[in-house]
Amino acid sequence: MLYLSTRGHADRKRFCEILLEGLAPDGGLYLPEQYPQVTAEQLSRWRGLSYAELAFEILSLYIDDIPADDLRAICRKTYTEEVFGTKEIVPLRKLEEGVYLQALSNGPTLAFKDMAMQLLGNLFEYELARRGAELNILGATSGDTGSAAEYAMRGKKGVRVFMTSPDGRMSPFQQAQMFSLQDENIHNIAITGVFDDCQDIVKAVSNDLGFKRKYRIGTVNSINWARLLAQVVYYFAGYFQATASNDKPVSFTVPSGNFGNVCAGHVARMMGLPIQTLVVATNENDVLDEFFRTGIYRVRGAADTHETSSPSMDISKASNFERFVFDLVGRDAAKLRKLFVEDLGLEGRFDLSADPAFKQAAERFGFQSSRSTHADRLATIRDTEKLFATLVDPHTADGLKAAREHLAPGVPMVVLETALPIKFAATIVEALGHEPDRPAKFEGIEALPRRVTVLPADVAQVKAFVAAHLS
Ligand SMILES: *Cc1c(COP(=O)(O)O)cnc(C)c1O
User: Fold this and answer.
1) 212 included as an active-site residue
2) Which residues line ligand 1 (CB under 6 A)?
3) CATH class, 92-110+225-432 region
4) Which of 64, 149, 395, 429 has CB atoms 3.0–4.6 Å from 255's, for a disulfide?
5) Where are any strands of DSSP class E within 286-365?
6) pTM, entire model
7) CA of residue 460 to ligand 1 center, whole Å
C-alpha cells in the first residue's frame, strides 16, 4: 500500500514514512492510492472478531511495513478492557426505536480521541525504537486533543510531549486531567493568552525548520493518517453491533469539527461497509453544514468563529475536509489545488454549487448534515435524560439532534458519542440543574499536585523551555 498527496506531489510513501509526518511536502494530505475493498467473506469473518483482532485485520490492509505479528501485538496491547472499560471497547446501546448510541468515550480521557491516540502512542514507541530515534511532540490544545495525546504518550520511550494550552481557559476537569500527570516525558505549558496564541506558537516553531530538525519536533494533530485509520475500525464494530447480517444498511451521525471522525466513516464506506448515510453534525460553527447544504465552502475569520458549549467542534475551517473533496472531485489533484490553494488562498472560499461533483456528495457518497445551537443542546440533554434516563455530553447532543432529522425507516441510525458529560459539567448543570456522574478513577483529581509551567505568549520562551527539557 502506497500513499499519495491530495495535491499531486509525485512521491509515493509507505505507512511508517508518513506515520511521524504531518502534511505532504506540497501541503496536501496523505491518502492511500486506493481504498482496499472488503469482500462478503471478509465481512462475515470479521463479525465474530474481538475489537483488537478487527483492528488488526483492517490496519493490515493499509500497513505493509510492520511485520504482522508486531502489528497484531500492538493492536492487542492497545484495545484492552482495562484501558477502555468494556470487553466490546465501543459498546452500542439502543436509545429508542432505530436510534443507537455508540460509546467511544470510555478510554483514559473520556473522549473519542483516545480511540486513535492510544494506538498512535504504541505505534510511535514501536517505530522510534526501530529507528533508534526520538521525537518531541509540540501541540496546542483547548481540551480533548491535548489530554488524549498526553495519556497516550505518558511513559513511552523515545517520546516527549510539550502541550500548550490557554491558561485558565480549559474546564476545571480538563485542567486537572492534564496537569495532574507526573510523568517525566509530559510537559504542560499554560500560555497566558487564548487558544489561537497557542496555535500560533506551535506554527511558528514548526516553521523554524532549523529548530524543528535540531530538536526533532513533531505533532499529533488530526490530519495524521494513522489517527484517521484507527477511527475506521469503530465504524465496522458499530455496524456489526447494529445488524444481524451483512446485507443491512446502517447510517451514522458524527459530531464534527475538523472532519477527522466522519472522514474515517467515509473511508469505511469507500471500503464497502454498507453505510447508507453519513450525517455531519455541527454546532454554530457551521462551515461544514453550509457546504453540504449549498456547495460553498467558506473559511471563517476569528470574529466569525464562535465559542460554544460544544467547544471541541469550534473550528474556523475543517482540516481533514480536503481528503473528502479529493475523492469528490474524482481524485483530480489539479482541480483540488485550484480549490484549496487558489480559491481558498485568494478568496477564503470555494464554490462547487454549480459543479456536477457537488450533487455526488449526497447521491454517491451518502453525506447529509445538520446544525445545532446552544438551546438545541440544552433541550436534547434534558429530553434524553427525561425520556431515556441517559446523560449525554453537549457534542453528542449535537449529534443526536442532527440524527433525528435524517432517520429513514428500517435503517438503524448510530450516533457516535464523542465525550462523557463529566468533561463538560457546566453545560450539564445549566441543562439539568445537577452535576453529571464522575467515574470513580477521577474522584478528587482537582486536588492532586499539578505539573504545569505558565509562560507568556512568546515563541522564544517556549523554544527555550523545550530546549531546556530534553534530557
Ligand atoms: C475532537 C472532537 C470532536 C470533533 O471531531 P473531528 O474529528 O475534529 O471532527 C467532536 N466531539 C468531541 C468531544 C471531540 O473531542
Assistant:
1) no
2) 111, 113, 144, 222, 255-261, 312-313, 395, 418-419
3) alpha beta
4) 395
5) 296-298, 349-351
6) 0.96
7) 31
